[in-house]
Structure formats: structure tokens, C-alpha cells
What we know:
single chain, alpha/beta, Rossmann fold, 14 strands
Amino acid sequence: MVALIDYDAGNLYSAEKALRALGCDPEVTSDPDIIIRADKVIVPGQGDFLDCMQNLERFGLIPVLKEVAARGTPYLGICVGHQLLFESSEEGMEKNGGKPVPGLGILKGKILRIPDFPGQKIPHMGWNSLSIRPGSRLLRGIPDGSYAYFVHSYYAEAEDRDDVAATTEYGVRIDAIAERGNVFGTQFHPEKSSATGLKILKNFLEL
């Protein structure tokens, strides 16, 4: 059973639709008991990092997701769900006493705001090519340079470069895909990334 986590963070419908197109019938849930029993867990998300962490706390899901990752269950974070895997974020600092907002800390690293550059719009919205690390299980069968669809103003900077399966460029190097053991994250939206995105989701489902 694939648990698609509902924690009032949006982006559920498009993720569920893509999974169903691949023949998967996900359990949309915020029930810790169901999540712990799942064969695979997907954490989508959009919006503000602080709000998403507060929603996870409200639903009692922070220790649950940490346990899922620790016990070896395949875990995929999408967009903000990807960012939540890391230790802290600059997003929401103004509502957090000027301090970085703590994340799940499943992966080491931090979430930073995309710098302002002349002629570069923020949020970053659109298709960007992926520079892919050989040997990624999530990216099996996907050629280097494939395009994915991004919508974000903040990005992950992983502390351990071995945790990065793909990067992209938008004024700065952006860690577009995280991969460590059973834990995966995509800064972009695979469910909105055409055939490349569906292949990524298929690879995850087949782990």
C-alpha cells in the first residue's frame, strides 16, 4: 500500500492523479497507524515551509515520518515535501523570531532563498534541465539533461553531496533531487513533469 500524506499542504490532487495514471491506488491519509504500515510513503506539499511543519506537528506526523525513514520504508518528498527532509529553512524566519525554521532533519542540509539576479524572476516557475548523477535508482532510465517542472522560491543545499542525485541551475546550483538509501526528494513536481516525471514516480513505485 502506498500512503499519500494529507496534512493540509496542498498538491494532493495532482499527485494522486499521476499515481492513478500509473495504476497505483494510493491511500490518501493523515492516520499515523496507516502511514506506519504502508509499503511506501509519499509526502507532497506546496506553500510555506513553516506552515507545512506546523501542519505536520498538528497531525502528529513528525515522529511518524522520522520513523518511516529510519525503518527503511521507501519515502518520497515532493516540492516542499522535499525541503522538509532537511534540517532547517530560511522560509518563515520572520515568523520564527528571525531564526531558521527547523525541518525533519532526515537529511543534513538547509533550505535557502533563491538569490535575486537581474532579469531572473522569483518564484522560479518553469522547465529546467537536470544534471543527473549516474547510478540513481529514482532516475533509472532517465537521460541526463531531461527537463522537469519547477515552482519554488527556496531550494535545498545538501551538506553531503552524496545525497544529491541531480542538480539544476537557476542563478545558483539547486539540489533538485535528494537520494539517500530509502529516502528520496524532488524539488520539482514529477506529477507535472510529463513523461520524465511519470517515469520518476514509476521508478519509486517499483523500488
